[in-house]
Fold:
Amino acid sequence: MHVRVVSVCSPLPLALSERTGTPATTWTGRLLVVPMDGSHWTGLKAVAEELGHRGHTVVVVMPEVSMRLDSSKHYITKRFPVPYGPELLEELQARNTEALQSTTLSLMERISSRISSFKKFVHYQQFNFDAVLTDPAMPTGAILAYNLSLPAVYMLRGLPCGMDSISTACPDPSSYVPRFFTKNSDHMCFSERVLNVLVSMVEPLICKAIYWSFEDVASRFLQRTVSMKEILSTGALWLFRYDFTMEFPRPLMPNMVLIGGLNCAIRSPLSLVSFLRIIILT
Structure:
């Protein structure tokens, strides 16, 4: 399946040009891409290839061992060694939820070493990057961008417990913005709104349970106490992979852009004969 970038006037080249104050039509930037393995890589790869095709220098750093990360002629691929092999990835995919909990700490240690490898690579390479493109679901790239004081561009579907709204200080009223797993819509009765409010009150505790391990890794790496909210709040641009026509209405901040349809296959228009055949037969 071919993947395309829907928007011709992508906000990412504009964000890169604003970094140096030069027009986006005459300036090419240098982008560091820190991908997340798995299906998250599909959208990042589409953007990396499109920007590389337009003349920007795109460098994608990835571990030597991965599930779906691959090279392309439109971007520079740099691989770094990691202290684990393909056996660990196969084990993580095969295990159930209960068994995964026992490997969380060891996985976080590997993430810590991965961040250190990223930092050494970036400092040793002859690239003066203008921005970092990453998926904050696995905040390796976000932590690296924060440490290097580079503008971070996040591409995501959403973060657990509303961390995206918290980090951007975006209003998230419980009166009409449904919370995860409540099965509510934007039209709620009194009891549904009460449930929505109760869930929103519990969300900070859920966030703490989800992100404490990442915060511990980031604090040890940065050598000071830091929260994921502080790290993610420095994001320059948030690219959300959903369409406003398919979602419930919710407030958005100026740096939050909806790019729904990014991973859609390129359509093949029907010929006139095929179109008439469908009309007649149906």
